[in-house]
Amino acid sequence: MRVTNLIFSYLIGLIFLIGGILFIVFLDDNRYLFGITYIVVGLVLVVGTHMAIRRRMKADGEEIEGQ
Which pTM does this prediction carry? Predict the structure, then answer.
């Protein structure tokens, strides 16, 4: 993955996470229907991108910090 792809993946994931939290806090009707859905999508994007980076580093034989 290129650096630009990683940045956009993280950015879109964070937008979904923040949007989901804002939906839960400020929306009156259907707050959990929209909020939890957006939070889950944001988590999938952020965690998936993070795991892709770790997999790539492991495949390239680089040392992974924290292990």
Answer: 0.76
Query: DSSP 3-state assignment of 21?
Result: helix
pLDDT given at position 59: 81
Three-state DSSP string of 38-52: HHHHHHHHHHHHHHH
Sign of CA pseudo-dihedral 49, 54, 60, 64: positive
What tens digit of pLDDT does each residue of 34-53 get? Answer: 899 999 999 999 999 999 88
Residue 20 half-sphere exposure toward CB, CA atoms < 13 A: 18
Q: Count of residues for the chain?
A: 67
Residue extents of the structural domains in the chain: 3-59
Residue 1 identity: M
C-beta atoms surrounding 26 within 10 Å:
9
